[in-house]
């Protein structure tokens, strides 16, 4: 199962997210659930970097592990843009969770 954890501040701002595990929906290379989660998450990170010039702190590891943490963002407009991109990512991931809930679980935590 792919486990996705969204970490928010008490005010609701997304601070970081972590993805780990494999869907095991299909054989490696044919797993549309893993491919979808990967495309959405890496697409969001790449969009943040390309469109806002914010450089998230990224950690990758085995078993589908991805941790993305935002640095402190002082500019309110840039912060709003980054948050919008991340909220869009979450909506897309929730769509996968809705259709493939046996293989994907999203949890939100307040820091």
From TrEMBL:
Protein family: Belongs to the Prp family.
Gene3D superfamilies: Cysteine protease Prp (3.30.70.1490)
Molecular function terms, GO-annotated: cysteine-type peptidase activity
Organism: Anoxybacillus flavithermus
GO biological process: proteolysis; ribosome biogenesis
Record flagged with keyword Hydrolase: yes
Pfam families: Peptidase_Prp
Protein name: Ribosomal processing cysteine protease Prp
Keywords: Hydrolase, Protease, Ribonucleoprotein, Ribosomal protein, Ribosome biogenesis, Thiol protease
GO CC terms: ribosome
Superkingdom: Bacteria
UniProt xrefs under SUPFAM superfamilies: TM1457-like
Tagged with keyword Protease: yes
């Amino acid at each position: 199962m792919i486990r996705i954890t969204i970490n928010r501040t008490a005010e609701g701002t997304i601070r970081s997210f972590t993805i780990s595990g494999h869907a095991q929906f299909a054989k490696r290379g044919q797993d549309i659930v893993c491919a979808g989660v990967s495309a959405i998450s890496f697409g969001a990170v790449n969009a943040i970097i390309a469109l806002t010039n914010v450089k998230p702190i990224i950690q990758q590891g085995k078993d589908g592990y991805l941790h993305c943490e935002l640095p402190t963002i002082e500019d309110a407009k840039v912060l709003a843009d980054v948050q919008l991109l991340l909220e869009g990512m979450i909506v897309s991931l929730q769509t996968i969770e809705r259709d493939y809930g046996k293989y994907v679980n999203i949890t939100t935590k307040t820091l």
